[in-house]
Each structure stands twice: as structure tokens, then as C-alpha cells.
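Regression report. Comparing outputs from two consecutive submissions.

Submission 1:
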Amino acid sequence: MNIKNHYSILFVLVFFIFGFLLINHSTWRQGLQVSYVQIAGQSIKVNLALTPQAQQKGLSARQDLAEDEGMLFVFDYSNIYPFWMKDMNFPIDIVWIGEDLKVVYIKKDAEPSSYPAAFTPTEDAKYVLEVVSGFSDKNNLKVGDSVTLDIGK
């Protein structure tokens, strides 16, 4: 094999490796990575919503949610983030979490029929957790409770 063929093979190999890394990074940024949130003594398996596109879609494509599942919205900075129930198929509890990993606001039993109304916290949050409706009451979750995130960042 001559040197030109070696460079061609190397180019193709580098191209595929770069493409693989780019696709995997893009998938992670879309919120498809599974992580865990420890809250109210429970471990919740969450999909991450990291991009504006993933955050706008949220759980709207889902038909249901198990008691140990949820979605964690991770924002770049703390702010007042209103949430709505557009295109949702089931009720949820929405939990706003501050930078200090304390619960700052809870909207229990947010119903799909509430759209276009938005639920707005009273304090800044950096994270928002969506879980099955009734989770907050069942696990006695309250404002001020601590949260542990394992989001692989």
C-alpha cells in the first residue's frame, strides 16, 4: 500500500470517529441521557432537558410516566421559569429547585386542561423536575427539602 492510500484510510477513520463523537454529544445535549435525582427519599430516573428545543417539548410526547421516572430541566442560570401543559397527556407535579439544590416551589397536580395557563414559581430556580402527579403528596415533599442530582456533568 502506498502513502496516499494510508492517508485516505486515516482520513475516513478520523471522519467516522468525529461523526460518532458529534452524534453522541448532540444526543446528550438533546436531553436523552438518563440520570438520577434523589428527592423526598426517592430515586427518580430522569431524562435531561438541556436545550431550548428539549425544554419546549418536555414530556409532551409521552403517554404516561412511572412513579420512579421524570424529566429534569437544567437551565444555564437561575431565573423565574414558568411552565405550561401544552400537548401533555397526563397530569404531573412540577418541582422548581434552586441553585442551592433546595426545593423553592411545587405545583401539584398540574392538569393538561390548564393550558394555556402557565405555572410560575415565586423564587428563582436553576432546575425544574417533572414527576408523576401525586408524587409530592405521597412522599411529603415540601419547599426547602434538599435534592441530590447525579446528572453526569
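Submission 2:
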Amino acid sequence: MRVAIAVDHGGFPIKEIVLQTVRNEGHEPVDLGTFSPESVDYPDYAEKLGQAIIEGQAERGILVCGSGIGACIAANKMPGIYASVAHDTYSAAQGVQHDNMNVLCLGGRVVGSEVVKELIKAFLRAQFSAEERHLRRTGKIRKIEARSMRKE
């Protein structure tokens, strides 16, 4: 699987750990930056990552800013992007299994390197269950998304 990776300056210190963990799990990282610790704006990187998924350059994404929250908010503004902050393995896996989450958001200033590895493993190993109740619920989310898009 191709996994888009985007970080801002707050996520830059753990970027190499993210890239290597994705590789170690047998997946191909698509590095969208940033490429230095200089201050950048997280919405720009959330948009790059979202576009990569929308355009089929990646199936999932990992987005890292200082807390994970700002990047998550920005990513969720894009149609077809279902992002969530997860700082525990249960949420990282269940977000995929029950909610069809396709972007894992992490706080580079919140979680340590060993936790990051475990979160990424849980996210990448999880698959959407496609159980009727989960299909019904995610279908409702897509309908909310579609109604909101028509209002723009």
C-alpha cells in the first residue's frame, strides 16, 4: 500500500521514524514534506496529503503536526478524507475498522518514538470491517459530506 506522509515543523522531529515504520511494515511511503525544521503552515501539508489520497497517489495517509489536532481539522475539510487523531493503538485500529479512517493524525509533541511506531502499525494493519452497521454509519457520513458540498 502507498501511504502519504506529510508533516509540519512540529512533526518534523519524528518524520524519519514515521517513514521507516511504514517501510518496515512493508508499505511504500510517499513523502510530501516538509523537508526541514523551519516553520511551515500545517493546512498546506494537510491539503497535499488529502490531494494525494483523492488523486489515487496513496491509499492512506499519516499526518503529523505538533498536537495532531490542527492538521486533522484541515484534512477533514476535504471530501473523501476521514482523518482522526489517535494517540493509543485501540483508536488507531478501530478508526479504520469501524469508521473507515484513511488518515492517521499524530502529535509530534505528544507521543514518543516507540508509541509512534505502535500507532502506525495498528493503523496500517487494520482493515475496514464492512459490517452492515459500519457501512450504514459511514454511508451516513458520506451523505453529510455530500450535502455540505452542495451548499458551497
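Expected: both submissions complete independently.
Actual: both completed, but the second showed a warning that disappeared on reload.
Relevant detail on submission 2: The mean pLDDT is 96.
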